[in-house]
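job 3f2a | input accepted
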Amino acid sequence: MKVIKETKSICPVCKTKIPATVYEESGKVYMTKTCPEHGEFNEIYWDSYSEYERFAKYKNYFSTQESGCPYDCGLCPNHRSTTMIGIIDVTNRCNLRCPICFAHSGAAGYVYEPTLEQIESMMGNLMDTKPFSTPCLQLSGGEPTVRDDIFEIIRMAKKMGFVLVMVNSNGIKMAESLEYCRELKRADVDNVYLQFDGVTPEPYIKARGLNLLPLKLKAIENLKEAGLSSTVLVPTLVKGVNDDQVGDIIRFAIDNKDCIRGVNFQPVSITGRINTSEREKMRITIPELTRLVEEQTGGFVKQRDWYPIPATQPLTQFISHIKNKHYPDFNAHPHCGAATYLVIDDDKVHPITEYMNVERLLEALENYNKRQRDGHDLKTKVELAKNLLKGIEFKGLFKMVRDIIYDNDFQQVFDIHREMILLSSMHFQDPYNLDLDRVQRCVVHYATPDNRIIPFCTMNNIHREEVERKFAVDTEQRLTEKAARFTEENLSEIPPMAASGLNVERLMLLNQL
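job 3f2a | predicted structure (513 res):
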């Protein structure tokens, strides 16, 4: 056993903060910790030590403090990163009852649904973050589309100034109605983050309780017809459920490249009490995902093509220098996520690493940034362009870098994403593998009605129930009022969806409640 680091975690049972050790053994990375009351816990942390080390070199260093974490999230002084993605749960109601879910009223026993005034205040809090406003907002839940005022919420976010506004959804509303998708387009939503667990019925039956595949396909069809060409597929990965479909999901995205802009794989987070052997049957880490992608695509996308989130920091710092304005610098923990791009070049699709040497470009950018920080004379634009553009074969990326250098034209940064498919993965933590070092570098944060901003993993492991109960709606009264209005006439308003395996009465009742 080789000890990698000592850190802090929590007991999966009582949630008390306890010491933890991250170590390497037999080529894998594990976490071990002992609660005085509930005993020892040993958990896989990363499936590959070599990949752990490769990603670790992109770590960003910050000053540390050691008090209050993870219980004083707000953000507290221990936090060492900025908000890249802000999340607002607009409801915990849902029109499904999936076994795999961070939050819904069916499990909680109460309804959490902030008012428009509270949501506006939460948006304002995210926009007031320093040193820059939160660029991306996700409207989540529960299922955000069960709110009748979701379009008003989207318009409010755009008016507030969020660069990117996304709606996280299971797709039921989009599949039911083309007009609903058109209204999303009119509200100016940027992305639909679509729950998408596989390309056959089996993963949905296992993970969601029913075959939702036809519904997903219909939702994508309607979104495309409505002119929304920025759908992101979001598979929740569970070993034995859909880990054999990662290659097929990527192929599906390529086949639908005119409307699919990304695939964000999310290895399952295990928040309930479950024994070690059962966890191991379900658990997938990022290195295992990237290895499966290589295997299931026949080497089309290789494990080495993936990079951690902070690898992009030289590019964002370079843009800040050229533009003389501070931009988000993706200062996440290197073991929180991974990503790569597929380049769409006419009818061809290839990994970005076939068009450019990523590490050479990042090294050139970092050399430029270092010269700027050290106060040295900078290269002329011609010399800079020559170094940075060397070896870039993809015309869209070449033009983007050139336009930034010569014309300070940053529209290309956004336009280039229409010519690529983002493959990414975020492995959110659970009580068994929670590492406070990762928490303190989280860049995905929830805004709450009490004006706090809380890292994703501590929100879902520690703070969610406390926040939601504090602002809960009277469940019994709400359900009684809704049930009184539930009639056979209501049922007739929902189009049949027998092909998806949905029980129409059940779906309507869940929508109403």
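job 3f2a | The CA atoms of residues 81 and 441 lie 5 Å apart.
job 3f2a | closed
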